[in-house]
Amino acid sequence: MSGSSPPSLRSQLGALAGLLLLLAATAGLAYVPMGAFNTVVALLISLAKTLLVMLIFMRLRSESAVVRLVAIAGFAWLAMLFLILMADYLTRVTLPPPY
User: Fold this and answer.
1) Is there a contact between 55 and 61 (Cβ–Cβ < 8 Å)?
2) Where does the pLDDT of residue 96 fall: very low under 50, low under 70, confident under 90, or very high at 90 and above?
3) How many other CB atoms sit within 10 Å of the CB of residue 53?
4) pLDDT digits over 41-87, tens only?
5) Is residue 98 domain-resident?
6) Owning domain of residue 67
7) Is residue 4 part of a domain?
8) Does residue 64 form part of some domain?
């Protein structure tokens, strides 16, 4: 750690307000019929929530470049795992039951 001071109360309350606003947007999105575009918008909202948490609560904004690089590498690895999971799921063939 770079020994930086913890986030101020103002920034934490701002992050809380932002997260609550994004939560309301996610809940409201469930009632808007947009077809397949709902998933895309929900993922973009979740990305905004993730970035907000990473920047404020994980203090990545004030950390060194190495710490930021490790955080980015971790999330890139997680994204790769999800891509492999989805590739496996989407290419499976449903077999009829044996009876």
Assistant:
1) yes
2) confident
3) 14
4) 998 999 999 999 988 888 888 888 999 899 989 989 999 999 999 99
5) no
6) 9-90
7) no
8) yes
Residue at 57 is within a domain = yes
Quote the Cα angle for 67-72-78, to 5°. Answer: 130
Q: Are 30 and 42 in contact (CB under 8 A)?
A: no
HSE (CB half, 13 Å, CA atoms) of 98? 0
Structure-token match 């690895």, residue found: 77
Sign of the dihedral defined by the CA atoms of residues 51, 55, 57, 63, in that order: positive
Q: Measure the CA–CA gap between 33 and 99, rounded to whole angstroms.
A: 40
> How is the chain classified by DSSP, letter by letter?
---PPPPPHHHHHHHHHHHHHHHHHHHHHTTS--TTHHHHHHHHHHHHHHHHHHHHTS-TTSS-HHHHHHHHHHHHHHHHHHHHHHHHHHT--PPPP--
Cα 66 from Cα 63, distance rounded (Å): 8
Count of structural domains, the chain: 1
